[in-house]
Design goal:
By secondary structure, this protein is mainly α. The protein is about 65% helix and about 0% strand. α1 packs antiparallel against α2. The longest helix is centred in the C-terminal third of the chain and has 22 residues. The radius of gyration is 14 Å and the shape is elongated.
Length: about 60
């Protein structure tokens, strides 16, 4: 399995799980801004880890 497939599958799984766990976040038109926010944060974090990992530096994880 290619890494991009894994990321796509992870993103979709998180998206689906958030919608199931938090139906109150879903607007009447089907949009889910909170789901979109979490998805964007996931992509941002993965990009940060990828950039840090590509230069040989160890990624640092911080508590939020």
């Amino acid at each position: 399995m290619r890494a991009s497939n894994s990321v796509d599958e992870l993103r979709q799984q998180i998206h689906d799980d958030l919608r199931i766990q938090h139906p109150e976040w879903i607007e009447p038109n089907g949009d889910c801004p909170e789901c979109d926010f979490y998805e964007a944060r996931l992509i941002e974090e993965l990009g940060t880890l990828t950039r840090k990992g590509s230069d040989g530096a160890s990624p640092r994880f911080t508590a939020r």
